[in-house]
Specification:
Layout (H helix, E strand, L loop, with lengths): L1 H20 L4 H5 L4 H4 L9 H4 L12 E6 L1 H13 L4 E4 L6 H6 L7 E4 L6 H8 L5 E5 L7 H14 L2 E5 L8 E11 L10 E10 L5 E10 L2 E6 L19
């Protein structure tokens, strides 16, 4: 137990050193951002086909988003942020393929990966909030106590960083996004090669009706394009958090 605790503290110390070295973020995270300034923040970049489903046209900086569903959408978020010059981290989501993110435009030099964050992945994410624009956090099927979610949400807000939580329960996030794979194209007789992947996406916020849409992912010239298509039906088969509770 002592060795595990020591290793965990060493990991956190190393992350703090790396965060201090991220250009352009250290000064911002060192001081609290006034609420008036928070309201003027531009949203965090997302794939253009997803932007139309989000009330602000992107992920609100300083917010917490609960996500359930296909990992390709998470890969797209990481790609959009790092390609636009931001810095991101993937914590506790070892099965998300980085190749998919790269094919969507991700810049790996701006992406930190903590595949095994140890016994407290939320603490690791809290450290990363100090220096990065987007953190995608896998909860390993667990639930985070409401008192702690409020503390982490306040930290994200003050740092101007966006936290996306998946594979677990997080109470009262600012937004919930659910996505499911809704079909493949290019699997005709004698072919067997996937040409397109369809996603049905649902977005819920605290103050607006749910939004639904369909997105097609299509490989083109070594890159995966995101294409918005007609309105999709509600994602009724997919819970909005890993506990199965929709809200």
């Amino acid at each position: 137990m002592g060795s595990d605790a020591e290793s965990h503290h060493q990991t956190l110390d190393e992350l703090r050193r790396k965060m201090a070295a991220v250009p352009g973020r250290g000064e911002l995270s060192a001081a609290r951002v006034p609420r008036s300034a928070e309201l003027r923040r531009e949203p965090l970049a997302v794939p253009a086909a997803l932007a139309g489903l989000l009330p602000e046209g992107g992920l609100v900086k300083g917010s917490v988003v609960a996500y359930t569903g296909a990992s390709s959408l998470l890969a797209g978020l990481l790609a959009a942020v790092t390609e636009s010059g931001g810095h991101a981290a993937l914590v506790g989501v070892p099965r998300l393929g980085l190749l998919a993110a790269v094919e969507m435009g991700a810049k790996l030099e701006r992406l930190a990966v903590v595949a095994d964050p140890g016994p407290d992945p939320v603490e690791v994410a809290a450290v990363l909030l100090d220096g990065l624009d987007l953190i995608v956090l896998g909860l390993g099927g667990g639930a985070v106590a409401p008192a702690r979610t409020r503390v982490i949400a306040a930290r994200a807000r003050s740092r101007g960083a966006t936290l996306v939580v998946t594979d677990g329960h997080w109470s009262n996030p600012a937004m919930r996004i659910a996505a499911r794979t809704a079909g493949y194209g290019g699997l005709g007789v004698g072919s067997g090669r996937v040409r397109t992947v369809g996603l049905e996406v649902e977005v819920r916020t605290r103050s607006a009706p749910p939004r639904h849409g369909r997105i097609v992912l299509r490989p083109t010239a070594g890159r995966v394009e995101w294409i918005a298509v007609e309105q999709a039906a509600p994602v009724t088969e997919l819970p909005l958090d890993a506990s199965g509770a929709a809200s």
